[in-house]
User: What shape does this take?
Amino acid sequence: MHVVILGAARHPLRQPFAGGLESLTWALVRGLRTRGIDVTLFAGAGSDPSLGAREITVEPLALSEDARRDVSMPPEPWLREHHAYLQVMLELQGRRDVDVIHNNSLHFLPVALAQACRAPMLTTLHTPPTPWLEPAIALMDQSRSRFVAVSGHTARQWAHVTRAAVVHNGVDTDTWTPGPGGDDLVWVGRVVPEKAPHEAVRIAAASGRRIRIAGPIGDRDYFHDHLEPLLGDRAEYLGHLEVPALRDLVGRSAALVVTPDWDEPYGLVAAESMACGTPVVGYRRGGLAEFVADGCGTLVEPGDVGAAAAAVDEVCAMDRAGCRAHAVAHCSLDTMVDAYVSAYFDLAPAHGVAA
Assistant: This one.
């Protein structure tokens, strides 16, 4: 079977990953290839050379001076991304060697042009509905397309425009391995308002523990105004770490704090943490409650710093081997890849390839 995977264009698929979407797509491609699936990947410029990705880039973006003077001229980065996906989809229209197109991007154009391609399309819904993607799905003929969501919560958010199966995200449990634990808390993710790391610092302070924070700064104004003033001896920002360093940090921590200020579609950092044996404490939002099980963590009402802080000691005492076992059984990359392979064969049975 030959599968084309469309990744996100804005960030490369390489360490240190810009976010969970990039990490997940990188792992999915590698996992599919270990099962003998022929994968062609389209991804952002600068992706890991071992993936052999085709760059999603517009070549060339030629605009006349008259076009540039148009008062409706959108920002050029937006225009480049739009036309880059257009070029990819125009190429795929004529391909006869593709069995399934797996749209793992957040862009609306692959969905809008799916019907023009010979191969059927599977789209993973990684986010709540967006104003670009929602109408594209509502208007399309879904007879040759399928949708999966990364959690039951996310599937329900999209239920007004499509029925999506659920394929939970998975983590490579051979990479995210058990650590010894420690005394400090840890927070991992993009440093942006909707991830609210400043809330994690407040929880740590109220619990009497130190906290270490790692991840890319996605909003510098937020970092400078809301997080940086809270840093010091009891709260340390370690920067944007590659996976080995991040795994060691999480594995040497007593618990992971998750503080979403939005409905987290899944919450990959929590699965990675449990794979390291590190339990989870934080807010019950989005898909987190679907896989953070009893004995592996405690989730409280969003914004309740006091309740989260009161739960910290109990969470830190949870059995690390049990957390690891739960992650291997329910949050593994193998489970996710198997589910996607099954979805590919369900979508393209006419090709007669045995799973």
Q: What stands out?
A: The domain at 2-170+333-351 is CATH 3.40.50.2000 (Rossmann fold). Residues 351-355 have pLDDT under 50 and may be disordered. The radius of gyration is 21 Å.
